[in-house]
Amino acid sequence: MHKQEFLHLVQKYPVAAAIKSPEDQKKALASDAALLFMLKGDAFSIGDFVTRAHELGKGIVVHIDLVNGIGKDRAGIQYLHQQGIDAIITSRSHLIAAGRAENLITIQRLLLLDHSALETGVKTIARAQPDLVEVLPGIIFPDIAQQLRHLLPGPFIAGGFIRTFADVKRIHTAGAILCSSSTYELWNRIDH
Question: Where do the structural domains in the chain lie, given as residue ranges?
Answer without folding.
Answer: 3-187
